[in-house]
Specification:
Elements: H1 53-82, H2 162-168, H3 184-190, H4 207-213
Amino acid sequence: MFDKEPEDIFSGTEPAKIEPLRPGGAMSPTVPGRPGAPAQVGAMAEDLGEAPAPRKKMFLIIMVVMLAVILGAGGYLAWQQFMVPKSGQQATPSPAGQNANLPAEAPANVPANIPAVNTTPAPLCGNGICETGEDATTCLGDCPAPPPPAVGPDTDGDGLTDAEEATLGTDPTKADTDADGLTDREEVVIYKTDPLNPDTDGDGYKDGDEVKAGYNPNGPGKLFELPQ
């Protein structure tokens, strides 16, 4: 009963072809062929010469990035041009509620540019007093002329040579022998007073003090004109 061989029902069919394995996601069940060519089962898009879709996406991404960079650079340049102050200019904050373009107002009740009052009186030539601002050039009547340069040795520098002082009896080493406030030459040449007597007219005032006060050191009265 079991001596007969079993019949092979697939003996008349063609053996199935074994296809090589492809990476996951790379195989397409059916890829249409070119016009006029039959569709190919299991063929890749690269095998048919068609560009894959990811390249188009990459191109679009690059274009979007470049456009964003260009817009950002343009916005930064516009901000630098219109918003940032120029070099050498400094924004000055203005008080609240005031327009910064309006000139600042001067404080009220503050006088501007008032000149200082000169309280120093002007010198008066002819009053017999050698005041500040007067000299023998501007007012000879009030200020004595400077002594001329001495001829010969003048140890004390009073305008009289040592030889002249030896004749007068004054001290050649002291410009004011009698210490009355006048040099020996001023007493001898200008005021005609005694260089050895501090009070020539004997009124109780030294010759130099009388000259400074405008009085005559050689007699009574005011000293309006100096002797020549």
